[in-house]
Specification:
mainly alpha
C-alpha cells in the first residue's frame, strides 16, 4: 500500500488525538481493520477513502498525496444552516426558528475560546481568527 497514504492517515488521526479504535468507529470499521490499514497489510477501499477524507475534513486527493494542503474544507455557518437536507430529522424540515437557533449556537460556539482553539488547530485559521491563506 502507498506509504504516503498510510502516513497521512496516521498523522491526521494523531493530530485529532484519536486512537485507531476512535477512527475505526468514525468510519464504521473495526480497530483490527484500522490497524491492518495503518500497517500496510490491508488496502483502503474507495468508500473508506471517502469516509476518511470526510472525517478528517480533507480531500481524497490530499490523502492520496496529489494535494499537499491539509487545510480542512471550509464550511461557513450559513452554509451549514442552509443545508436543510443535512439538518432535518425524521423527514421534518426545520422551521426558520430552528434554523436561527442553530445559527446562534454555532456562531456562539465558534466565537468562544474553545471554538477559536479548534479553528486554529483544525480549521486553517490563525491566532487572530482569520482564515489562513491557502497556497
Amino acid at each position: 500500500m502507498d506509504n504516503e497514504l498510510i502516513q497521512r492517515i496516521i498523522n491526521l488521526r494523531e493530530s485529532h488525538d484519536w486512537t485507531q479504535k476512535d477512527l475505526a468507529d468514525r468510519i464504521n470499521t473495526s480497530k483490527v481493520t484500522m490497524n491492518k490499514i495503518e500497517h500496510g497489510v490491508r488496502k483502503v477501499s474507495s468508500s473508506e477513502l471517502k469516509q476518511l477524507a470526510d472525517v478528517f475534513g480533507v480531500s481524497t486527493d490530499y490523502l492520496l498525496g496529489h494535494d499537499t494542503s491539509s487545510t480542512p474544507k471550509h464550511i461557513d455557518v450559513e452554509d451549514i444552516v442552509d443545508q436543510q437536507a443535512m439538518l432535518t430529522s425524521r423527514n421534518h424540515a426545520l422551521s426558520d426558528e430552528d434554523r436561527n437557533a442553530i445559527r446562534a449556537l454555532l456562531t456562539t460556539y465558534l466565537n468562544s475560546s474553545e471554538g477559536q482553539d479548534r479553528l486554529r488547530k483544525f480549521g486553517g485559521y490563525d491566532d487572530e481568527g482569520n482564515k489562513k491563506d491557502e497556497k
